[in-house]
Amino acid sequence: MKERMGISSAFYRIRSLVHTVPSVGLILGSGLGDFCDTLEDPVVIPFSDIPGFPVSTVEGHTGAFVFGRTQGKYVVALRGRIHYYEGYTPRQIVMPVRVMAKLGVKTLILTNAAGGVNPGWPAGTLMLMKDHINYSGMNPLIGPNLEDFGPRFPDMSDVYSRELREKLKPLAAAEGIRLDEGVYVMFSGPSYETPAEVRFARIMGGDAVGMSTVPEAIAARHCGLQVMGVSCITNLAAGMQATPLDHSEVVETANRVKAEFTRLLRLMIDIA
Ligand code: HPA
Fold first, then answer.
1. Is 136 touching ligand 1 by the criterion CB < 6 Å?
2. Is the pTM of this model over 0.90?
3. 41, 55, 112, 162: which has the highest count of C-beta atoms within 10 A?
4. Could you give the CA distance from residue 77 to residue 23 in angstroms, rounded to a whole number?
5. Residue 91 belongs to what H/E stretch?
6. What are 124-180's pLDDT values in tens digits?
7. Distance, CA 58 to ligand 1 centroid (Å)?
8. Separation between Cα atoms, residue 183 and residue 141, nearest integer Å
9. CA–CA gap between residue 174 and residue 157 (Å, rounded)
10. Euclidean distance between CA atoms 106 and 67, whole angstroms
11. How confident is the model over 46-73, as pLDDT tens digits?
């Protein structure tokens, strides 16, 4: 099958170019993308160099794997996350996760920008994902099951490792980083949610809404990776603040919180 061959050929191509085995994978959302540039001894492999890999249609935004070392660990980071709203298929979105797993990654760290649904949280809050609600209408595991990756009906009762969350919380507190725990609800985007959808998300038990992360987390659990996820609440979700939503607000808050978020990311890598 084409997809399995794509994953395999990506694996062999990368193995011929990179000789370290990364134990941690990073897929970083708005604001944290530059973290890739802080890796030591980086090796960058653009998707365009990997046969069969989804290449972004937006010029200048070619995705890439960045391999390198940080805090004494070998890691691989994804530069230029692939979103469902860009028109990729759910299975394309998770190809990088599956390649990471084949390369030896054991723990996947996911971050994103999200709208706050929990009324107690101001913009700038960092939310440790304790669970998600997949309201995107898709699932990356739909279609033939890749048996060598995982089972047809994978368990999702501990997607965001409780054990790692319990390790992270006291470390964050000791560093003075406030970390709230919550449930992330994925909508497909790219339009922001309506106020009614946001109220619905809250009734469903959501604390944040966003357009990414869930497919990657599902694919990662399918193939047995441990997952940690953190959302930066960049704005209150639609209808919860007086002004309309604007992407520039998302970028502004993400930049404001970046230093603290990066410190938290380093703690996550330490315990991964
Ligand atoms: N909704 C969905 N995705 C987002 C938001 C939001 O309010 N803010 C940042 N990403």
1. no
2. yes
3. 112
4. 11
5. helix 90-93
6. 999 999 999 999 999 999 999 999 999 999 999 999 999 999 999 999 999 999 999
7. 21
8. 21
9. 29
10. 15
11. 988 888 787 766 555 678 999 999 999 9
Q: Which ligand 1 atom is nearest residue 116's CA?
A: 7
Q: Which domain holds residue 10?
A: 2-271
Here the CATH number for the domain that contains residue 188 is 3.40.50.1580
* Domain total in the chain: 1
Tell me if 239 sits within 8 A of 198, measured CB to CB.
Answer: yes
3-class DSSP state for residue 38? helix
pLDDT in tens, 212-227: 999 999 999 999 999 9
- Looking at residue 120, its pLDDT comes to 94
Q: Is the CB of 235 under 6 A from ligand 1?
A: yes
Sequence-separated (6 or more) residues with CB below 8 Å from residue 191? none
For the Cβ of 115 lying below 6 angstroms from any atom of ligand 1, the answer is yes
